[in-house]
Amino acid sequence: MPKFPARVHPILARSAKTAVILRRGPSKSVCTLLWDRRNDTFKLGQWLRGRIYERRCDLSPDGKHFIYFAMNGKWDGPMKGSWTAISRAPYLKALALWPWGDCWNGGGLFLTDSRFWLNNHWYDEAAETVGRLRKKLVQEPGYPFEENHGGECPGVYYIRLQRDGWKLVRRESPSPEEHIAVFEKPLPKGWVLEKSAHASINNPVGSGCYYDTHRLIHPESGETLDHPKWEWAELDRKRLVWVTKGVLYAAKIHGKGLGDVKVLHEFNEMEFEAIPAPY
């Protein structure tokens, strides 16, 4: 069997120079890491035997709390096989946990450092462990957004992208089995980063049914640089950061494109290890 590169999905804090990275591989093993973006150092959080749905996760603006949706398939267990939790970043040990029981909906978003929204209105009645949250963390009781993209990954991910400065510019449906939402974010020097968020049952080997592709566009010059192997890409202050084949890269943006490319971290050779949270 071929060995696929690790799937790596960072979530950048909005008000702090940190990020939580979700690193998956093999398919039923996932870990979290803390990325200090001031000096590009990385600290391992915790591993989970199961799946975390990275497009239904979020990091509080101050980078202190992490909300995630996970599945281990133990449907008769106390967490009903899937659950939403809030933890101290970058760890997974729950401060609050909402058992669910299937893979529809789940996860959520931070509205502020102190307020969060859960991606399922039934959680309002089923949050039997919400008392474990710190008093300053408060659940938003209703649906706080103007648009709705459904209960699965796009319902959280597309809202998160737009909140973080991406503009939804168009939708495409190349076939009945594939739907694409195209987002854009302005970059320095007149460049634009385009992110095409795919939802397809004909996904490439090694990716899930939800995956992204990217390209750089310079509207003034008309130049387009395709980067279909960038699995994730984002503007981090004045530099561009992206992931390809389990490796995180960075480069400054110049008028003619990207400057010297720097490898920030390689995630492929990591293996599961049991790590307790420090709380």
Describe it.
Strand 11, helix 1 and strand 12 (138-139) form a beta-alpha-beta unit. Helices cover 5% and strands 47% of the residues. Mean pLDDT is 92; it is low at 124-131. It has one domain (7-266). The radius of gyration is 18 Å and the shape is globular. The chain is built from two helices and 22 strands. It is mainly β. Strands 5, 6, 7, 8 and 9 form a five-stranded antiparallel sheet that branches.
Reading the helices and strands in chain order gives EEEEEEEEEEEHEHEEEEEEEEEE
Question: In total, how many domains does the architecture comprise?
Answer: 1
The end-to-end span amounts to: 39 Å
**Derived structural class:** mainly beta
What is the percent of helical residues? Answer: under 10%
Radius of gyration: 18 Å
Low-confidence stretches: 124-131
User: How would you sum up the major sheet?
Assistant: 5 strands, antiparallel
Strand content: over 45%
Name the overall outline: globular
Mean pLDDT: 92
Helical segment count = 2
Topology, number of strands? 22
Short account of what is shown:
With 279 residues, the protein is mostly beta strands. Helix content is 5%, strand content 47%.
Relevant terms:
279 residues; mainly beta; 47% strand; globular
Task: Record the SSE blueprint.
Layout: E1 7-12, E2 18-24, E3 29-36, E4 41-49, E5 51-52, E6 58-59, E7 65-71, E8 82-88, E9 94-99, E10 108-110, E11 115-118, H1 123-126, E12 138-139, H2 153-163, E13 167-175, E14 178-186, E15 192-200, E16 210-218, E17 223-227, E18 232-236, E19 239-244, E20 247-254, E21 257-258, E22 262-266
Parallel strand pairs: 11-12
Antiparallel strand pairs: 1-2, 2-3, 3-4, 5-7, 6-7, 7-8, 8-9, 10-11, 13-14, 14-15, 15-16, 16-17, 18-19, 19-20, 20-21, 20-22
